[in-house]
Design brief:
- The chain has about 90 residues and is of the alpha+beta class.
- The protein folds into two domains: about 35 residues, no CATH class; about 40 residues.
- The protein contains one helix and three strands; from the N terminus they run E-E-E-H.
- Strands 1-2-3 form a three-stranded antiparallel β-sheet, with no helix packed on it.
- Strand 2 and strand 3 form a beta hairpin.
Length: about 90
């Protein structure tokens, strides 16, 4: 079932050391974001027929903010692990 805004589906992807993310771009259509994790893949398409360019851009900014927050948290955990390792030495 889709929402009134045209969004649908749900997924969980457990990303390990083999994970990567990339964007496919095209001259006349919205980009596609793909996250690969081993033999699994999650692809995000923008509902171009239901969303205006401004709405797609708003989603992209929302996604960028979430990724920035996610990255900051990963950096915090990485730094904490490095401190724990150096404290144990």
């Amino acid at each position: 079932m889709s929402s009134p805004g045209g969004s649908f589906s749900g997924a969980h992807l457990h990303v390990g050391a083999d994970g990567r993310a990339y964007t496919s771009t095209y001259p006349d259509t919205a980009p596609i974001l793909t996250i690969d994790a081993g033999e699994s893949s999650l692809t995000i398409f923008l509902a171009s027929e239901r969303a205006t360019p401004a709405e797609r851009l708003a989603f992209a900014y929302s996604l960028a903010a979430a990724v920035t927050s996610f990255t900051a948290e990963c950096e915090r955990l990485h730094q904490a692990a490095q401190q724990d390792t150096s404290s144990a030495a």
